[in-house]
Amino acid sequence: MAFSYKLHAAGSQSILAIADDDVVGKAFEEGELSIEVTHDFYGGNLCSEDEIPELASRAAMINAVGKRIVALLARDGTVDKSMVLEIGGVSHAQVIRI
Questions:
Q1: Are 20 and 9 in contact (CB under 8 A)?
Q2: Rounded distance between C-alpha atoms, residue 5 and residue 66, angstroms
Q3: Residue of 52, 89, 42 whose CA lies nearest to 73
Q4: Which of 44, 68, 86, 98 is found 20 to 30 A from 79 (Cα to Cα)?
């Protein structure tokens, strides 16, 4: 089970954009909400579930899309389950560490 990710620099901080590999390149809509999971933002690297804690620990912000990645981040306490959005059947969560 692979995940697609990209680390983006934001000043001295980093943003981890991570998604289930099977949603990259797709767009989802529900009501007024929509999300496009572009390769430019979420792609470039593949990782396994075992690599995610290290990647997440290095990021000041996390943008996660996909049922598998959001469930994994919620299970370890990184994502608050009550803050997860469902957009067109796909889970979306954002984490900002202060």
A1: no
A2: 12
A3: 52
A4: 44
Burial of residue 72 (number of CB atoms within 10 Å: 0-12, 13-18, 19+): buried
Longest dimension (CA), the chain: 36
**Amino acid in the structure at residue 37:** V
Tokens matching residue 23: 């949603």
* Amino acid of residue 45: N
pTM, to two decimals: 0.94
Query: In this structure, is the dihedral angle defined by the CA atoms of residues 77, 83, 86 and 92, taken in order, positive or negative?
Result: negative
Q: pLDDT tens, 17-61?
A: 999 999 999 999 999 999 999 999 999 899 999 999 999 999 999
Report how far Cα 42 is from the mean position of its chain's Cα atoms.
8
Give the chain's domains with CATH numbers: 3-96 (3.30.1860.10)
